[in-house]
Amino acid sequence: METSENKILSVCGTDCGACYCYGKMCTRCNACEGKVFHAPEGQTCAIYDCTVNGKGFHSCGECDAAPCDIWRRTRDPKYSDAEFEENIRMRMQALKG
Ligand code: SF4
Ligand code: SF4
């Protein structure tokens, strides 16, 4: 999904264009159907799996349950509690505009 501000958003609201991995080790989850390097080996990202494969949405922005338990289960362990809550807030803002 591309926005008018030219952000390159993934289905979970992550701005891929702002990530140092984008264009190097990662081409974004939509390009590799959720099988990104940070997903469990050989598996699809749980968020991508639910959103695109399960519900047929373009992003979690179309889902009334967002931010759901799957978002919490896929938490990057490097985040503190406060950083993760801020990350969720930013992703929701990006998805909902
Ligand atoms: S967490 Fe899942 S949906 Fe979000 S960018 Fe990574 S692969 Fe895509
Ligand atoms: S339940 Fe909704 S918010 Fe959660 S991953 Fe699936 S589509 Fe996204």
Radius of gyration from the alpha-carbon trace, in angstroms = 13 Å
How much β-strand is present in the residues?
under 5%
Average per-residue pLDDT, rounded, comes to 91
Question: Number of helical runs?
Answer: 3
Give the termini separation. Answer: 12 Å
Shape: globular
Number of domains: 1
Spell the H/E element sequence. HHH
The percentage helix is 25-40%
DSSP strand tally: 0
The largest pleated sheet is described as: none
Bound molecules: iron/sulfur cluster
Q: Output the structural class.
A: mainly alpha
- Low-confidence sequence ranges: none
What does this structure look like?
- With 97 residues, the protein is an all-alpha fold.
- It has one domain (16-96).
- The chain has three helices and no strands.
- The protein has helices at 46-54, 69-73, 81-96.
- The longest helix has 16 residues, at 81-96.
- It starts with 45 loop residues before the first helix and ends with a helix.
- The model has no long low-confidence stretch (mean pLDDT 91).
- It binds iron/sulfur cluster (SF4) (2 copies).
- The site of one iron/sulfur cluster (SF4) has 11 residues, from helix 1.
